[in-house]
C-alpha cells in the first residue's frame, strides 16, 4: 500500500506533502513482518517538496544541502556603517548578556523601545552583530510589521511557521489547522523544543504588542531575544531599554561624518540648529547630511534655509512629526522629477521589501533604470538596503511616500498594484516552469506580460529560492488586489502560487488564499476558475487531514467544472476525491472516482493524468488486497511515466511494484525493482529516497535469510535519516533494526529498539507506525516471557489495524498471537488464531502469512493429537515457503517432520 501511495504522490506535485496526514492515521504497511513502513512516503514527500532557499536550512534541492542538516542560521540585516556611538546603551546590553551567561542564568528578554526614527532597529542589529559570537547556533531577524503602513501586523502563528521552517523543521511537520489559538500554541511548543538546548539570538523587530511576540520567545535559557517596539511593552523578567534621540554632540558628529565635509567648513552653530530642527533623530540627520553631500555648491546655511521652509510647509503637523517629515520633504523635493515619481510609486507596494524587478514594474521603467533609482535613493538615505540586493522603506518614509501618492490621481494606486501583480504573474510562470513536474500543467502568464522583465531563474533551486523570498510579498499583493476588487488578478495569482504552496506550505496560508480566490471567481462569474480554486482548496484540506472539508470542496469543484463542461478539471477533482476516499478506507467510492477520472483522462489523451489515476487506482486495489489488479495498474502507470521521461514517477512506480511483489512472495522481482528505484534516486542525488530504498531492500534481504545484509541496509538508512532530520524515516529504520535483532535472538535489544520506535510514532501521531511496533513488541515480549505484555500489545495493534481496514496486518498479528499461545501450552486457542489468519491470507492471496498460518495449524495438531498429526498442513507450509525462498522456515519444519 505504501509505495503505491508513494508512486501516486510523486506523479503529481499536488500530492507530495499531503500524504503525511494520512500517514499519521493509516500508514503502517500491510505486512509488519515484511518491514515495509509508512515512513518511506514521508521521506519521499520531504524530498520532493524541497522548497527552502539556500539561505534557509531545509531539504536539499539541486545540491542545496541535506534536509534538516545542522546549519547555523544567520539572517541579520547588514550592520550600518553610519551607526553612531551609543556606548552607554551598548555597554548596558552587552554587560547584561555577559553577566547572565557567566552566572549560568537564563537570558532575559531585552525590549528596546523609542519613538519612530530614533534608530531602534539599527541599534538592535548593531548589538546583534557585536554579540553574534556568543550565540553560535544562529542569529535570526523577524520583522513583525507592528507599525508598518499598509501592512497588518504579522500574526504569531505565521511568524512561528517561518521560524520553524528556517530552523529546519520539515513543512509537513509544522502544525496546521483552523483553530488559530491551538495551532499557535502547538507551533510555539515546537519552536521552544527546537531551541531548548541552543545558543541563538533572535531579533523581533517592530512589535505591536507583547501578546504578538510572546509565543515567539524560546524556552531555552541560552537564547537571547531583542525586541524593538514603538510602545513600552511591559512584562515580567524583561530588561527594558529606551533608545532616545541622539545627544546633540553625537547628532552633530553623525551629520559631519555623513556630509563628507570638514567640521570647520560647516559652522558649528548652523549644524547645531540643523540637527535640532530634525529632532536629533538619526534618520533625519542622515537625510540632511546626504542632501549636503550631494550638493557640493550648497553651504550648511543653504541647507538650513531649505529645511526651515519645509517645516513651514508642514506646519499643520505636530512638532515631533514635523521635525522628521521636514527632512523627508527636503530630500524628496531635491530629487529629479522622474525619481520623485519612482519614489511615490514605491509607496503603493503592498509588500515589505523589493528588488529592482518589482521596482521596474511599479515605476514603469526598465530593470536597469529601476536599479539606478534604488541605488540613488539608498545613497540619499530614502530607502534601506537589505541582504540579497533588496530594499525597503523605513516605516516613516513609506507613510510619507503613500501620502505623496495620495495627493495625485486616485487611479495611480490601482494601476500600480495591477502592474506589480502582472509582474509577479510573469515571474511565477518562469518559476513554475522549473518547479512543476514534467507534464503537469503550468499556470500560464497573462497575455500582457510579454514586455515584463523577469528574474533570471536558471534552475529549480533558483526558482524555489525566489519563491520563498517573494512568498509574503505575493500574498500581500493578493490581499491588496482583493481589497481593490481586482478579482481576475486574485484568481490568477492564487493559481500561480498553488504549486509552490502545496509543497512549501504553511497549508493554513494556502487555505486562506484559495478561499479568497474562490470568492473572487464567484464575483467574476468564472466557474472554471472557481472550480480550480475549490480543487486546490480540497487538495490542501486533504494535506491537513481535514477529510470532510476536503470532500466538500472537491465536490463543489466537480459541480463547477460540470457547469462549463471542463472534463479535465472534473477528472482532476474526481481523482482527488478518490484519494480522500482511499485515505478514509472508502475503497469502493475511491475506485469508482478513480476509474471515472481515468476514463476522462483517456478521452482527453492526457497521459500524465492517466498515469496518476492508474497509480491511485493501484493503491486502492492494494488496499483492497487485489494484488494482481494493483500490479496491472501500476505497471501501466510505470510505462507512461517512462514515456514522459518522469524519473521520479518511474522510480516510485518501481518501488511500488517492489512492495506488491514482496507481498506476493516474489522476492527476487521485488529486490530488482527496489534496486532500480535506488539507482534512479542515486542519479537524482536524492538521499531521502535512497534511504527509503535501502530500508525496503533490507526487508527483502531479511525475508530471504540474509540478516546481516538487512542490518547493514537498515543501519545505512538510519544514518541518512538521522543526518537529514527525517523523523518518520528514522523511526522506521529503528523498527526494522529491532525486527532484525528479534530474528537473530537478541530479544532484549529488540524490545529496546521497538519501544524507541513506538515512542517516536506516538509523538508523530502515526497510528500505523504504532500498530507496526506493537505487533513486533508482542513477539519480542513473548520471547522473554512477558506473556501479559505481549497479549496487550497484540490486542492494541490488532484494534488499530482493524480500524484501518488492513487485513494483511491483521493476519500477521493473528499468526504472531497464535504462536505465543502455542508456546504457552494453549494449542486449542492458538489454532483458532491460525485459522482466522489462514482465511484472511488466502482471501487476500498473501503467501507468507498463508504459510505461517499453515505451519501454526500443523504444529497445533501435532501438539494436541500427537506426533504425525498435522503433517498435511506442515507439508503445505513447506511448499509455500520453498516457493518464497524462505529456507530457514523450511529447515525448521523438516527437522520436526524427521
From TrEMBL:
Gene Ontology MF terms: ADP binding
Cited Gene3D superfamilies: P-loop containing nucleotide triphosphate hydrolases, Tetratricopeptide repeat domain, Winged helix-like DNA-binding domain superfamily/Winged helix DNA-binding domain
Domain NB-ARC: 100-257
A Pfam family of this chain: NB-ARC
PANTHER family: HTH-TYPE TRANSCRIPTIONAL REGULATOR RV0890C-RELATED, REGULATOR-RELATED
NCBIfam families: HaaA_phane_TPR (NF041717)
Protein name per the record: NB-ARC domain-containing protein
Organism (species): Streptomyces azureus
Amino acid at each position: 500500500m505504501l509505495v503505491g501511495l508513494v508512486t501516486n504522490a510523486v506523479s503529481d506535485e499536488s500530492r507530495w506533502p499531503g500524504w503525511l496526514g494520512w500517514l499519521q492515521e493509516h500508514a503502517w504497511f500491510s505486512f509488519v513482518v515484511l518491514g515495509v513502513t509508512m515512513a518511506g512516503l514521508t521521506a519521499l514527500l520531504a524530498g520532493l517538496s524541497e522548497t527552502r532557499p539556500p539561505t534557509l536550512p531545509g531539504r536539499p534541492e539541486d545540491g542545496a544541502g541535506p534536509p534538516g542538516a545542522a546549519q547555523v542560521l544567520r539572517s541579520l540585516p547588514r550592520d550600518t556603517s553610519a551607526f553612531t556611538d551609543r556606548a552607554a546603551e551598548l555597554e548596558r546590553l552587552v554587560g547584561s548578556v555577559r553577566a547572565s551567561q557567566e552566572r549560568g542564568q537564563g537570558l532575559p528578554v531585552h525590549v528596546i523601545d523609542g519613538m519612530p526614527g530614533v534608530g531602534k532597529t539599527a541599534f538592535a542589529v548593531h548589538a546583534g552583530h557585536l554579540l553574534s559570537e556568543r550565540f553560535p547556533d544562529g542569529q535570526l531577524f523577524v520583522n513583525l510589521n507592528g507599525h508598518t503602513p499598509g501592512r497588518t501586523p504579522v500574526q504569531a502563528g505565521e511568524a512561528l511557521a517561518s521560524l520553524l521552517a528556517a530552523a529546519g523543521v520539515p513543512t509537513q511537520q509544522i502544525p496546521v489547522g483552523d483553530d488559530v489559538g491551538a495551532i499557535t500554541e502547538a507551533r510555539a511548543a515546537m519552536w521552544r523544543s527546537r531551541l531548548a538546548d541552543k545558543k541563538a539570538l533572535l531579533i523581533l523587530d517592530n512589535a505591536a504588542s507583547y501578546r504578538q511576540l510572546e509565543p515567539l520567545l524560546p524556552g531555552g535559557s541560552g537564547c537571547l531575544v531583542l525586541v524593538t517596539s514603538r510602545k513600552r511593552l511591559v512584562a515580567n523578567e524583561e530588561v527594558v531599554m529606551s533608545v532616545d534621540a541622539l545627544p546633540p554632540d553625537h547628532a552633530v558628529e553623525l551629520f559631519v561624518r555623513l556630509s563628507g565635509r570638514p567640521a570647520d567648513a560647516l559652522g558649528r552653530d548652523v549644524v547645531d540648529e540643523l540637527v535640532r530642527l530634525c529632532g536629533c533623530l538619526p534618520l533625519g540627520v542622515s537625510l540632511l547630511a546626504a542632501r549636503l553631500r550631494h550638493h557640493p555648491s550648497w553651504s550648511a546655511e543653504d541647507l538650513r534655509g531649505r529645511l526651515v521652509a519645509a517645516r513651514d510647509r508642514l506646519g499643520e503637523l505636530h512638532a515631533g512629526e514635523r521635525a522628521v517629515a521636514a527632512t523627508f520633504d527636503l530630500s524628496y523635493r531635491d530629487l529629479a522629477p522622474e525619481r520623485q515619481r519612482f519614489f511615490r510609486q514605491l509607496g503603493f507596494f503592498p509588500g515589505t521589501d523589493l528588488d529592482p524587478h518589482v521596482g521596474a514594474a511599479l515605476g514603469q521603467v526598465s530593470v536597469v533604470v529601476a536599479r539606478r533609482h534604488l541605488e540613488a535613493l539608498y545613497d540619499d538615505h530614502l530607502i534601506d538596503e537589505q541582504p540579497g540586493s533588496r530594499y525597503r522603506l523605513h516605516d516613516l518614509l513609506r507613510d510619507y511616500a503613500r501620502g505623496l501618492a495620495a495627493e495625485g490621481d486616485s487611479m495611480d494606486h490601482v494601476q500600480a498594484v495591477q502592474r506589480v501583480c502582472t509582474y509577479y504573474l510573469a515571474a511565477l510562470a518562469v518559476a513554475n516552469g522549473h518547479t512543476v513536474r514534467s507534464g503537469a500543467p503550468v499556470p500560464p502568464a497573462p497575455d500582457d506580460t510579454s514586455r515584463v522583465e523577469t528574474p533570471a531563474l536558471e534552475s529549480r533551486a533558483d526558482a524555489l529560492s525566489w519563491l520563498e523570498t517573494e512568498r509574503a510579498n505575493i500574498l500581500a499583493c493578493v490581499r491588496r488586489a482583493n481589497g481593490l476588487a481586482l478579482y481576475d488578478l486574485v484568481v490568477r495569482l492564487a493559481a500561480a502560487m498553488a504549486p509552490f504552496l502545496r509543497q512549501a506550505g504553511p497549508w493554513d496560508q494556502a487555505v486562506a488564499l484559495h478561499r479568497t480566490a474562490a470568492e473572487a471567481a464567484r464575483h467574476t462569474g468564472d466557474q472554471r476558475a472557481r472550480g480550480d480554486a475549490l480543487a486546490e482548496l480540497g487538495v490542501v484540506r486533504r494535506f491537513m487531514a481535514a477529510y470532510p472539508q476536503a470532500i466538500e470542496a472537491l465536490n463543489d469543484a466537480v459541480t463547477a467544472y460540470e457547469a462549463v463542461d471542463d472534463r479535465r478539471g472534473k477528472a482532476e477533482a474526481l481523482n482527488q476525491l478518490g484519494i480522500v476516499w482511499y485515505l478514509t478506507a472508502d475503497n469502493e467510492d475511491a475506485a469508482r472516482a478513480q476509474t471515472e477520472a481515468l476514463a476522462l483522462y483517456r478521452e482527453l489523451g492526457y497521459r500524465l493524468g492517466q498515469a496518476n489515476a492508474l497509480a491511485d487506482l493501484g493503491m486502492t486495489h492494494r488496499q483492497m488486497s487485489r494484488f494482481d489488479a494493483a500490479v496491472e495498474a501500476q505497471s501501466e502507470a510505470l510505462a507512461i511515466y517512462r514515456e514522459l521521461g518522469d524519473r521520479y514517477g518511474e522510480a516510485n512506480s518501481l518501488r511500488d511494484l517492489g512492495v506488491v511483489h514482496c507481498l506476493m512472495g516474489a522476492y527476487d522481482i521485488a529486490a530488482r525493482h527496489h534496486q532500480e528505484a535506488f539507482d534512479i534516486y542515486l542519479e537524482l542525488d536524492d538521499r531521502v529516497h535512497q534511504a527509503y530504498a535501502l530500508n525496503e531492500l533490507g526487508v527483502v534481504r531479511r525475508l530471504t535469510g540474509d540478516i546481516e545484509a538487512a542490518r547493514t541496509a537498515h543501519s545505512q538508512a538510519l544514518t541518512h535519516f538521522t543526518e537529514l532530520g527525517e523523523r518518520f524515516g528514522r523511526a522506521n529504520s529503528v523498527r526494522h533494526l529491532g525486527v532484525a535483532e528479534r530474528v537473530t535472538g537478541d530479544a532484549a535489544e529488540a524490545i529496546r529498539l521497538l519501544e524507541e520506535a513506538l515512542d517516536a510514532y506516538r509523538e508523530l501521531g502515526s497510528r500505523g507506525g504504532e500498530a507496526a511496533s506493537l505487533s513486533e513488541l508482542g513477539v519480542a515480549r513473548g520471547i522473554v516471557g512477558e506473556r501479559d505484555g505481549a497479549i496487550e500489545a497484540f490486542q492494541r495493534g490488532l484494534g488499530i489495524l482493524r480500524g484501518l481496514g488492513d487485513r494483511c496486518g491483521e493476519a500477521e498479528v493473528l499468526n504472531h498471537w497464535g504462536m505465543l499461545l502455542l508456546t504457552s501450552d494453549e494449542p486449542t486457542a492458538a489454532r483458532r488464531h491460525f485459522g482466522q489468519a489462514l482465511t484472511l491470507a488466502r482471501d487476500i492471496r498473501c503467501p507468507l502469512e498463508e504459510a505461517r498460518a499453515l505451519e501454526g495449524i500443523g504444529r497445533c495438531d501435532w501438539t494436541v493429537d500427537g506426533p504425525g498429526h498435522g503433517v498435511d498442513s506442515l507439508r503445505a507450509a513447506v511448499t509455500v515457503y520453498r516457493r518464497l525462498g524462505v529456507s530457514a522456515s523450511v529447515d525448521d519444519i523438516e527437522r520436526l517432520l524427521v
